[in-house]
Design brief:
Layout lengths: L1 H23 L9 H26 L11 H27 L4 H20 L3 H22 L3 H32 L4 H12 L13 H18 L8 H7 L2 H23 L7 H23 L5 H28 L16 H26 L15 H4 L1 H15 L5 H14 L2 E3 L5 E3 L1 H30 L12 H19 L2 H9 L11 H8 L5
């Protein structure tokens, strides 16, 4: 119990703070106090997380706990707190000056961040589902609080209804996993699947994968694909992004996507033994369709937030490349890029996490720019609203160009390293040949080519927006009224983009050397290798 409380201490702090903020919203407290107080809460949470990680990793943990920390989970949580601080910072000025429920706003935001952090340490299907719902439910409220016009209300209802549908699919898949294994705890599920589909004894008869398990994998991928806005579960994104505020669109672009991806990373390492081929095929198809659909539809948009919505769909496709590689590495742990050293490159799942970080920092900064450029009653809606921005506001125009270049994958910005990592992981997948050697896996080679072509397509609409900002005369010079705090958040994000791009080495080193048990691939993987990789006669 003490170990569980130690891990949950940062989450308790965030949850209590969120409740206190909502309670404080009922009193006559100056609105300008809430933003700095929320930043202070995130700082206290970071200190609690540091203490929690240091104590729990030092003594080790019982694998039977419902929550379980690791170096990789701690890194994910620290990044979530940093991104959350940038979101809070960009909202401070607006919340201090505009009328509205400020206490409730920050309370819901802190609860969202609490759910995101809880995804990182969930070691049980029930805990994982509750953490995802702790993100979704405050999101409904924030979407409504962002704007009060009919478009915002329509966006809130759309997201609410479709999110419930995706939660039902996810819960249905988890119920199938429980019915198949008799447990909701990750390590127990993996142990049962190991004994059934990958026995240590090479002479044991391995049964055909259960139809129940195949259906479960389909439902799990479908439910989490909604969080990531992957095709065909993306159709809510353009309308919701356009209908809500720039700040809320930024939240939707980052937080649910991060939760969905990390949840997939955890599930691949725990509940897919015996079903790796199905997961690999589904992820391959989802990655290719999501990249292509998102980029091609983004080309046709004239609304900034709709374009960025389809852009976020495309980026989910790039992340799914690493997920597909992760399924393959799960079935062939001794052949993956991580196991072979990989020329300093991380493996499939780690590459997706690297891409997520690069995407998240650039997205937070980009939406902070849109928040700053907006003003009461009128936000930045169309691409033409940004015409000549570099001439009216050179610093902000340069920052936006950095974010767009990073998303396009221009070196040496972090978006380039993210794309390079996921494409390299796809090209690292090998299959044996008749002469005893190895060759590139054709499906993954094609996927890498599709990814490179999509990166070129994506560069078109990013560069089109940059050209509007730098090569055209401004149509007007309205004074930005989004608040100085949003400006500072954009500048801090730009600094982070530059630092991650110029000095990617420590991040690469951390991801490449992250122990495999952090991804849920130990300790039983070592026992599975002999059964999975018997030499061909």
């Amino acid at each position: 119990m003490s170990e569980t409380f130690t891990i949950l201490l940062p989450h308790v702090v965030l949850a209590l703070a969120g409740a206190l903020f909502m309670l404080a919203g009922t009193f006559a407290i100056p609105r300008r106090w809430f933003g700095p107080a929320a930043l202070a809460v995130l700082g206290i949470t970071a200190l609690c997380l540091r203490s929690s990680v240091a104590s729990t990793l030092a003594v080790g943990l019982d694998s039977g706990l419902s929550v379980r920390t690791s170096a990789l989970a701690a890194g994910f949580q620290y990044c979530c707190l940093a991104v959350g601080a940038l979101f809070v910072l960009q909202s401070v000025s607006n919340q201090a000056s505009e009328e509205g429920p400020t206490g409730e706003f920050y309370g819901m935001l802190l609860l969202m961040l609490d759910g995101l952090l809880l995804v990182g340490v969930a070691n049980d299907l029930i805990t994982l589902f509750l953490s995802l719902e702790l993100i979704s439910i405050p999101t409904y409220v924030l979407l409504y609080l962002g704007r009060r016009d009919p478009r915002s209300q329509e966006a809130s209802v759309k997201y609410f209804l479709l999110s419930i549908f995706s939660a039902a699919m996810l819960l249905y898949g988890m119920a199938f996993i429980y019915g198949l294994t008799g447990s909701t705890q990750f390590d127990s599920i993996r142990r049962v699947l190991i004994e059934t589909y990958a026995p240590i004894n090479p002479e044991a008869i391995v049964p055909t994968p259960s139809a129940l398990g195949l259906v479960a994998i389909v439902f799990l991928l479908a439910g989490l694909s909604f969080k990531m806005a992957a095709v065909p579960f993306h159709f809510y994104a353009p309308d919701v992004y356009e209908g809500t505020s720039a700040f809320n669109a930024g939240l939707l672009a980052v937080i649910p996507k991060a939760a969905g991806l990390f949840a997939l990373v955890r599930l691949i390492g725990q509940v897919t033994v015996g079903f790796e081929a199905t997961g690999q095929q589904l992820a391959l198809i989802l990655a290719a369709v999501t990249m292509t659909g998102g980029n091609c539809l983004a080309l046709l948009q004239s609304n900034v937030r709709r374009m960025l919505a389809y852009s976020s769909v495309a980026h989910a496709g790039y992340m799914l490349i690493g997920i597909a590689v992760g399924f393959w590495e799960q079935a062939h742990p001794s052949l993956g890029l991580t196991a072979r050293g990989g020329l300093g490159l991380p493996g499939g799942l780690q590459s997706s996490l690297l891409y997520l970080l690069a995407y998240s920092v650039a997205s937070v900064g980009l939406f902070a720019c849109l928040v700053y450029l907006g003003r009461p009653g009128r936000q930045i809606e169309h691409l033409e609203d940004l015409t000549g921005l570099a001439k009216t506001n050179p610093v902000l125009g340069t920052a936006m160009a950095l974010f767009l270049f990073s998303m396009a994958g221009i070196p040496p910005l972090p978006g380039f390293w993210g794309k390079f990592a996921v494409f390299a992981s796809a090209l690292s997948v090998r299959q044996p040949t008749l002469d005893g050697g190895f060759q590139l896996h054709p499906a993954f080679a094609i996927l890498a080519v599709v990814g490179v072509l999509n990166a070129a397509i994506g560069g078109v609409y990013y560069l089109r927006l940059i050209a509007l900002m730098f090569l055209h005369e401004p149509l007007g010079a309205p004074k930005p009224n989004g608040g100085r705090s949003a400006y500072y958040a954009a500048i801090l994000s730009a600094v982070a983009v530059v630092l991650l791009g110029v000095f990617p080495g420590p991040l690469f080193h951390f991801l490449q050397n992250a122990p495999r048990e952090n991804l849920g691939l130990q300790p039983v993987t070592a026992q599975v290798v002999p059964a999975l990789e018997q030499p061909a006669d």
